[in-house]
Design goal:
This protein starts with 14 loop residues before the first helix and ends in a 27-residue tail after the last strand. The protein has one domain (1-95): 60s Ribosomal Protein L30, Chain: A, CATH 3.30.1330. Strand 1 (40-47), helix 2 (54-63) and strand 2 (72-77) form a beta-alpha-beta unit. It is α+β, with helices and mostly antiparallel strands and 119 residues long. It has helices spanning 15-32, 54-63; strands spanning 40-47, 72-77, 86-92. The chain has two helices and three strands. This is RidA family protein. Residues 109-119 have a biased composition (Basic and acidic residues). Residues 95-119 are annotated as: Disordered. InterPro entries: RutC-like_sf (IPR035959), YjgF/YER057c/UK114 (IPR006175).
Length: 119
């Protein structure tokens, strides 16, 4: 995910703005997927300036205020395109959907196999 402004689609000039947008995108993605930030296991953050972590840390602590429950974080330096100063990817385990059967049958995220497709 990048730090694009969600309203304009443009990349802001400052790392502070990009970091705030990126963490906002993380929240929105997880909400749309039926989860939340508590479901994140790990995040990998790419910074154009490896030592320029103040904006990252400010947003990180805002999203994860309790140090005991923060996900793992890996920060690396990267050559990013078109004025981007920060990017991330994450791994999250979302809660099961209420429509997912307990017996392991097909749920909303699985495709039922038709009889004609069975071996």
């Amino acid at each position: 995910m990048t730090g694009r402004d969600p309203a304009t689609g443009e990349i802001p000039e400052t790392l502070d703005e990009q970091a705030a947008n990126m963490f906002g995108h993380v929240r929105e993605l997880l909400l749309a997927a039926g989860g939340g930030t508590d479901d994140i296991l790990t995040m990998t953050v790419r910074l154009a300036g490896y030592r320029d972590r103040a904006a990252l840390n400010a947003q990180w602590e805002k999203m994860f205020p309790d140090p005991r429950t923060r996900p793992a974080r890996h920060v690396v330096t990267a050559s990013l395109d078109r004025g981007q100063l920060i990017q991330c990817d994450l791994l999250a385990v979302l809660p099961p959907d209420d429509a997912t059967p307990v017996d392991g049958g097909p749920g909303p995220h699985t495709r039922e196999t038709k009889e004609s497709e069975q071996p």
